């Protein structure tokens, strides 16, 4: 069993260690050292001292060289990274391989941004005050970045948070999810092997929650990148020191509207993928599907049939399509929510049962109450809820009724219906004839309302981690 030491630069004590287990069968995978308040302070001081010494800043050409070497190393180790991510996070191997490919491509996007994006010229000479002036901006790193990450994409989320920090020239301290730290530590090891000086990227697993709060709220932190629950994210934002900036990515209860003219042969597989991918543990997973009453029953029965056909099991096996939930307590919670919804009037069309302490059947619920938890809160499990509607205006009203807004979707072959949904759905992105979990890593990815703050996506995160600094020259 592998043992991972703390990745802090400086004389930092070890607070103890935790055992990382596979969510599918709770078998031990590795042990990892934890950090206390003193160790976190050492990490922060190393990062902050480095940033304050401008002579130590990494030039762009060196950052590009490091990122390109990381791309090559990750490509060589792609299968190892995929297997480890599948074991520690429970995402099926077929999807974990895609995650590794995305993580590598995320670093390529960082390089592309460094090659093509920079400052800008500011118009001068357009009034008397600006006569004889020339102005331009360049980009500089914002300062120390703290990245707090989530379990559901243990490698790609780290790539999304740490890759832009490296590209921006910011020292970064990353705190992975306690249940999935191994992919993060592998990523940092690769960064250092690629030539990144150790103090530019440190990784910590805090001993307790108070230590994590100390890390985030320290005055030496310039930017917080947080991916996780809304409860924790908004709490941490309230602890930030004056002047610190942040980006928060939470979740929601993603809505899909299916119009009467939707292509069902196209619709069904996309809803199955969007709803049950990674056992529904995705922040924009398909959850609430509003279907025109004329086709609602047909869609429901076809989705139920598809849900029953999905292979649930060990995520490291090639045939597995749906893996475990991250911990047994989550299986118990999903079972409680489904049972409650059925008691409150939902029709159970597929699934609804715990298969093992770590797995839950792919579940389809028809017409649950608007007051049920499955209708009001993010399930974060393999459950799709279906609601028949009469007029699209009613579907939009129901879709917009919750305090979350992230990505939404509409299935229709009518351009007028598509534009109506785009204009009226509360969302940062509306997918037409695709599921709500569609994403490529160069596009903006933003939670609104309680679903988050700021904009994700590699180019946007990179800009967040930089400041634009202007020079005004008198050239008369």
CATH architecture of the largest domain: 3-Layer(aba) Sandwich
Strand order, largest beta sheet = 13-14-15-12-11-17-18
pLDDT averaged over residues? 97
Q: Report the β-strand fraction as a percent range.
A: 15-25%
**Domains counted in the coordinates: how many?**
2
From the helix content, strand content and strand pairing, which structural class follows?
alpha/beta
Figure out the total of helices: 15
- Report the CATH superfamily of the largest domain: Aldehyde Dehydrogenase, Chain A, domain 1
Low confidence ranges:
none
Head-to-tail CA distance between termini:
70 Å
How many individual β-strands? 21
> Gyration radius, to the nearest Å?
24 Å
Q: In percent, how helical is the residue content?
A: 25-40%
Q: What would CATH call the class of the largest domain?
A: Alpha Beta
Sketch the major β-sheet: 7 strands, mixed
Fold-level CATH name of the largest domain:
Aldehyde Dehydrogenase, Chain A, domain 1
Write a compact overview of the structure shown.
By secondary structure, the chain is an alpha/beta fold.
Structural write-up:
The chain is of the alpha/beta class and 476 residues long. It has two domains: 2-250 and 451-474, Aldehyde Dehydrogenase, Chain A, domain 1 (3-Layer(aba) Sandwich); 254-440, Aldehyde Dehydrogenase, Chain A, domain 2 (3-Layer(aba) Sandwich). The protein is 39% helix and 21% strand. It is built from 15 helices and 21 strands. It has helices spanning 37-52, 60-76, 78-89, 93-116, 156-168, 182-193, 209-217, 230-239, 264-276, 296-309, 328-343, 373-376, 392-399, 415-424, 458-464, and strands at residues 2-4, 16-21, 28-34, 121-122, 133-141, 144-148, 172-175, 201-203, 221-227, 245-249, 254-258, 286-292, 347-350, 363-366, 383-389, 404-405, 407-411, 429-432, 448-449, 452-453, 466-474. A seven-stranded mixed sheet has the order 13-14-15-12-11-17-18, with helices on both faces. A six-stranded mixed sheet has the order 8-7-6-9-10-20, sandwiched between helices. It has a three-stranded mixed sheet with strand order 1-3-2, with no helix packed on it. α9 (264-276) crosses α10 (296-309). The radius of gyration is 24 Å and the shape is globular. The model has no long low-confidence stretch (mean pLDDT 97).
């Amino acid at each position: 069993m592998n043992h991972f030491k703390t990745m802090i630069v400086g004389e930092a004590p070890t607070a103890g260690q935790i055992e990382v287990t596979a969510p599918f069968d709770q078998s031990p995978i590795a042990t990892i050292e934890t950090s206390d308040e003193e160790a976190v302070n050492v990490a922060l001081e190393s990062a902050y001292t480095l940033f304050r010494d401008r002579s130590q800043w990494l030039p762009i050409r060196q950052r590009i060289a490091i990122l390109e070497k990381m791309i090559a190393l990750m490509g060589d180790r792609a299968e190892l990274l995929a297997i480890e991510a599948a074991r520690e996070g429970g995402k099926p191997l077929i999807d974990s391989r895609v995650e590794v490919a995305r993580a590598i491509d995320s670093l390529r996007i960082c390089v592309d941004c460094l090659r093509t994006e920079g400052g800008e010229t500011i118009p001068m000479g357009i009034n008397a005050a600006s006569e004889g002036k020339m102005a331009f901006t360049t980009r500089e790193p914002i300062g120390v970045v703290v990245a707090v990450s989530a379990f559901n994409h243990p490698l790609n989320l780290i790539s999304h948070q740490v890759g832009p920090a490296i590209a921006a020239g910011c020292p970064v301290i990353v705190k992975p999810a306690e249940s999935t730290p191994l992919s993060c530590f592998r990523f940092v090891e690769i960064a250092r092997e690629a030539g990144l000086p150790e103090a530019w990227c440190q990784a910590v697993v805090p001993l307790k929650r108070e230590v994590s709060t100390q890390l985030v709220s320290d005055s030496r932190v310039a930017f917080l990148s947080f991916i996780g629950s809304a409860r924790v994210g908004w709490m941490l934002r309230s602890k930030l020191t004056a002047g610190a900036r942040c980006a928060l990515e939470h979740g929601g209860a993603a809505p899909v509207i299916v119009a009467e003219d939707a292509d069902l042969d196209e619709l069904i597989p996309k809803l199955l993928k969007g709803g049950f991918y990674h056992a529904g543990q995705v922040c924009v997973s398909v959850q609430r599907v509003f279907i025109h009453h004329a086709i609602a029953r047909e869609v429901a029965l076809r989705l139920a049939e598809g849900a029953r056909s999905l292979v649930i099991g060990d995520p490291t096996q090639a045939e597995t399509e749906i893996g475990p939930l991250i911990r047994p307590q989550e299986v118990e919670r999903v079972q409680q929510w489904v049972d409650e919804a059925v008691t409150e009037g939902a029709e159970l069309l597929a699934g609804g049962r715990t298969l093992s302490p770590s797995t839950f059947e792919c579940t389809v619920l028809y017409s649950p109450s608007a007051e049920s938890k499955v209708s009001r809160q993010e399930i974060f499990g393999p459950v799709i809820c279906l609601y028949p509607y009469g007029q699209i205006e009613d579907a939009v009203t129901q879709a917009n009724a919750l305090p979350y807004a992230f990505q939404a979707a509409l299935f229709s072959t009518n351009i007028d219906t598509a534009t109506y949904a785009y204009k009226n759905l509360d969302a940062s992105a509306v997918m037409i004839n695709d599921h709500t979990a569609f994403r490529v890593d160069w596009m903006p990815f933003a939670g609104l309302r309680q679903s988050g703050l700021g904009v994700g996506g590699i180019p946007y995160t990179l800009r967040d981690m930089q400041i634009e600094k202007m020079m005004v020259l008198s050239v008369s």
